[in-house]
Design brief:
The chain contains three helices and six strands; from the N terminus they run βββββααβα. By secondary structure, the chain is α+β, with helices and mostly antiparallel strands. A four-stranded mixed sheet has the order 5-3-4-6. Helices cover about 25% and strands about 25% of the residues. A hairpin with a 6-residue loop joins strand 1 (about 1-5) and strand 2. The longest helix is centred in the last third of the chain and has 10 residues, at about 55-65.
């Protein structure tokens, strides 16, 4: 069981998307860090779980839950996650 960082609902791991920070390091802290969808849920590092629903992603973004779950500061680019969800 995992908790969605958007709606805070608990669900099976297979029903949620795992979000992780992109492992590429640019060295430029001012640029937003990219979040990628871990489709196989096997990438290394800390992950944040969200339902594959645009409303859950919007709620997580509004609550600033993704950076808090990943324990990072600064802006995050959720463009790839939106593209994955078809937004």
């Amino acid at each position: 069981m995992r908790t969605c960082v958007g709606c805070r609902g608990r669900d099976q791991r297979s029903a949620l998307l795992r979000l992780v920070l992109d492992s590429a390091k640019d060295g430029d802290v001012a640029e937003p860090r990219r979040i990628v969808v871990d489709v196989r849920a096997s990438l290394p590092g800390r992950g944040a779980w969200v339902h594959p629903d645009p409303q859950c992603l919007e709620l997580a973004e509004r609550r600033r839950a993704v950076p808090r779950a990943l324990r990072v500061d600064g802006p995050l680019d959720l463009g790839e996650v939106r593209a994955h969800l078809g937004q």
